[in-house]
């Protein structure tokens, strides 16, 4: 089975585990975000932190949100430092995918145990205005 952007997401996940193994559990999300940003850039990836993404309703901008990290304009990373992943986090990531041209999202939780979710939302299914 071929996964969309498998090589890139595999490198991101490897880097996520490197950061988790170095820092462990207990820091704020921002600490993990900064560490992951450094490591991904060190691997030669183009990483954007806290990029503003506009949300539209019937063609009107109704608000903005900020993606934790976007890698190579392809993968959105949503970082959490919670005990475990809950549905709300996964729904949040899906909404972020709906608002961008990114089709892949990774929810990375720096909890007591490292865990992640991979979400896909193909551009051909999206009905929205360009957000950037």
Descriptive account of the structure:
The protein is α+β, with helices and mostly antiparallel strands. It has a single domain, classed as Lambda Exonuclease, Chain A (Alpha-Beta Complex), CATH 3.90.320. Helices cover 33% and strands 33% of the residues. The chain contains three helices and five strands. It has helices spanning 6-23, 29-42, 87-98, and strands spanning 47-57, 60-71, 75-80, 104-110, 114-120. Strands 1-2-3-4-5 form a five-stranded mixed β-sheet, sandwiched between helices. Strand 1 (47-57) and strand 2 form a beta hairpin. The chain is globular and about 45 Å long. The relative contact order is 0.18. The mean pLDDT is 90. InterPro entries: GxxExxY. It comes from Flavobacterium terrigena.
Which secondary structure elements does this structure contain, and how are they paired or packed?
Blueprint: H1 6-23, H2 29-42, E1 47-57, E2 60-71, E3 75-80, H3 87-98, E4 104-110, E5 114-120
Parallel strand pairs: 3-4
Antiparallel strand pairs: 1-2, 2-3, 4-5
